[in-house]
Specification:
about 300 residues; Mannitol-specific EII, Chain A; 5-stranded mixed β-sheet; 3-stranded antiparallel β-sheet; 11 helices; 11 strands; about 20% strand
Length: about 300
């Protein structure tokens, strides 16, 4: 399978008559709707209006890549447009980003793996200056969709969890002081720590969710019982409390040899931001949504 398989002339716009990323995205969205690729136009419009930061990838001054998972469509679909003039979006403090290519990828949640594969393939395709020049040089939608470069660019073979996971992840132990583990999470800017025994076997998980739940429970107790619960007992502040007191023992894991298709679908369907990678009961890696996006996009 190659990139040309996802490009139909009726979903290509040359030129896009738009000055901003938002207006250009609406043009491509309307083109998908007109081509019959979208079953619920209002649902897609609402999803795009959520304007989540992770929905857009800016590839320098070459292209904007917008990607959405939504059941407004029943299949993965792609729209592509180019403009003779820069299409821009405003950033903070008066900065702006501009590019002349805009790509829109829409897929239902059950297509999570293929969606990530296609988004990553187009991102890597557009990382080449020569390919970008060829795309911008196409005079019509038909000519752009028929570029041989799209036909020649094969999607990469199926990835496994091992290809994307972070190896040798930070871990903690069940008897470690809770405050030490919480401090490490803050300092390392990580959202969770696998909890292991001395042999590296997975026992549970300590995440921001467990910490917040514990803090909230302690706060409510203090508010209801007053002085019956002293302030220093809050999560992470009582030196007697350990990771074991807070961690969850219900942890969903993946294998390093598991196809990324399965792992990505699992993370999307279960709304998981991160999962430990386990082999023979021992933690050998960590897979997060950030790992998937960064490595597939190639940044």
């Amino acid at each position: 399978m190659n990139l040309a398989d996802f490009l139909l002339p009726q979903r290509v716009v040359v030129p896009i008559d738009a000055e901003t990323v938002d207006s250009a995205a609406r043009v491509l969205r309307d083109r998908l709707v007109a081509s019959g690729a979208v079953s619920d136009a209002d649902k897609l419009r609402r999803r795009m209006n959520e304007d989540r930061p992770e929905d857009i990838v800016a590839m320098g001054d070459r292209a904007f890549l917008l990607h959405y998972r939504t059941d407004a469509t029943t299949t993965l679909c792609v729209a592509l447009g180019t403009s003779p003039d820069p299409i821009c979006r405003e950033l903070t403090e008066g900065d702006r980003q501009c590019a002349r290519i805009l790509l829109l990828v829409v897929a239902p949640p059950r297509f999570a793996a293929r969606y990530l594969q296609v988004v990553g393939a187009f991102a890597r395709f557009l990382s080449s200056a020569d390919r970008v020049d060829r795309v911008l040089g196409a005079p019509t939608a038909d000519a752009l969709a028929a570029l041989p470069e799209f036909r020649e660019y094969e999607l990469p073979p199926q990835l496994t969890v091992r290809d994307l996971m972070s190896e040798r992840p930070r871990v903690t132990q069940a008897d470690a002081p809770l405050r030490d583990a919480a401090r490490e999470m803050v300092r390392a800017r990580i959202g969770a720590l696998p909890v292991v025994d001395t042999d590296g076997r997975l026992l549970g998980m300590l995440s921001e969710r467990e910490l917040v739940r514990d803090l909230l429970a302690t706060y409510l107790q203090r508010e209801i019982l007053g002085t019956a619960v002293r302030a220093p007992i809050a999560a992470g502040k009582d030196p007697r409390r350990t990771v074991r007191d807070v961690m969850t023992r219900q942890v969903l894991c993946v294998s390093p040899d598991q196809p990324l298709a399965e792992a990505a679908s699992l993370m999307v369907n279960k709304d998981l931001g991160r999962v430990p990678v386990v082999r023979d009961g021992r933690v050998v890696g960590f897979l997060t949504r950030g790992d998937i996006v960064r490595k597939l996009i190639g940044s």
